[in-house]
Design goal:
alpha+beta; Glutaredoxin; Glutathione S-transferase Yfyf (Class Pi), Chain A, domain 2; 2 domains; four-stranded mixed beta sheet; 8% strand; globular
Amino acid sequence: MIRFYFHPTPNPAKVALFLGEAGLPYEVVPVDTSKGEQHLPAFGAINPNGKVPAIVDTDGPGGKETRVFDSTAILIYLAEKTGKFLGSPEDRPELLSWLLFLASGLGPFSGQAVHFQHAAPDGLDYAVNRYRREAERHYQVLNDHLEGRDFIVGDTYTIADMSAWGWLDRASRVLKGLEDPLAAYPNLKRLFETVDARPAVSRAREVGKDHSFKRVNDEETKRALFPSNYPPAA
């Protein structure tokens, strides 16, 4: 059984998609990051970095309970566990390259673009421009790579496509103010629409819907989501 530590944000969504695609049995454990539950000691034992997603596999290697954190690590772990969505063995170097491009580039720059456009105080124009333009650059790199391709790696749907879908699903927030944020990236838009049409996506979107996550963006939420902006308690 997989215990899936979840909040309805892009990186957990990738894992929700894989679980839906693979048909693995799992239990959702809500982590309300707006309430600061990611900083509790119990969750710190699962992910010392205090971020979602994370999983605990009660039937890990050797039958041992195994924790895995970071969405990319989880996707690789589950794909290897099930033997699904890894592409061909010959594609392995390319698969890892694009997964790390998404994990270290497109994802983080998208997240920072969202932060500075939607959450940060006004007047930080340099930061807004920096992260918005870098998000756009990463979109363009992936769009160019997809020219003449159906999927990111090889000829089949893989965890790289799932990883990209998680953040592309929030393109309207990353590229704030655009009615059709992927219009300038037709290959990327085609990939997103291809993945988004899969039946497992609708199942992934239902994950956590039975839990009432906090939606109010008050002082508690800001301290929970951005603790480094506040001095440590005396």
